Amino acid sequence: xxxxxxxxxxxxxxxxxxxxxxxxxxxxxxxxxxxxxxxxxxxxxxxxxxxxxxxxxxxxxxxxxxxxxxxxxxxxxxxxxxxxxxxxxxxxxxxxxxxxxxxxxxxxxxxxxxxxxxxxxxxxxxxxxxxxxxxxxxxxxxxxxxxxxxxxxxxxxxxxxxxxxxxxxxxxxxxxxxxxxxxxxxxxxxxxxxxxxxxxxxxxxx
Length: 206
Ligand SMILES: Nc1ncnc2c1ncn2[C@@H]1O[C@H](COP(=O)(O)OP(=O)(O)O)[C@@H](O)[C@H]1O
Ligand SMILES: [Mg+2]
Prior knowledge:
binds magnesium ion; two-stranded antiparallel ribbon; about 20% strand; Rossmann fold; seven-stranded mixed sheet; FTHF_cligase-like_sf; binds adenosine-5'-diphosphate; alpha/beta; 5-formyltetrahydrofolate cyclo-ligase activity
């Protein structure tokens, strides 16, 4: 029998899983997290599709998230165009990607996350993004993703799932402790085709 998504049961279960996974991530030492970020940077940059200049949407890691500092720095060193998200100034709960450079000004958004100063000239539409690095709290063996609960990346990727940006390749980044066997999912959750952890590249395509 097909299991129906039940909003209440499932959202409680998701909330509990989020708590557990965030606690597990918190237990990982700063050194291990840093090494994890470096191991992911190596695997990402070695991908065949990264062997020519790309536009890469990334994010600025905070708290116990997998540190993206090394990843972002290496992407720029290798000549890729880096774009980072800002909270959309008009459309609530949506993200905009902004191209960054050495001249970029920074400020902290409402969540305390550093973001580039909003400048319309630097907006990178998803149609121009080759790789989108996606933060996550948990992922499962078929690529389902659990985020922080804001639904930002589900909204960002809704158009991609509908086939609008065929060039775009989302890649989740995570520590190995963020993997679970199966996540309870909701209809709006967009599963990821790939996730990179410090130990391997998880490919859920095919
Ligand atoms: N494409 C979308 N359009 C409208 N609302 C969405 C969309 N994706 C997610 N949401 C809303 O965002 C909220 C959080 O989504 P959820 O999947 O629980 O968070 P996360 O993916 O961050 O773990 C949900 O209540 C959902 O209604
Ligand atoms: Mg979701």
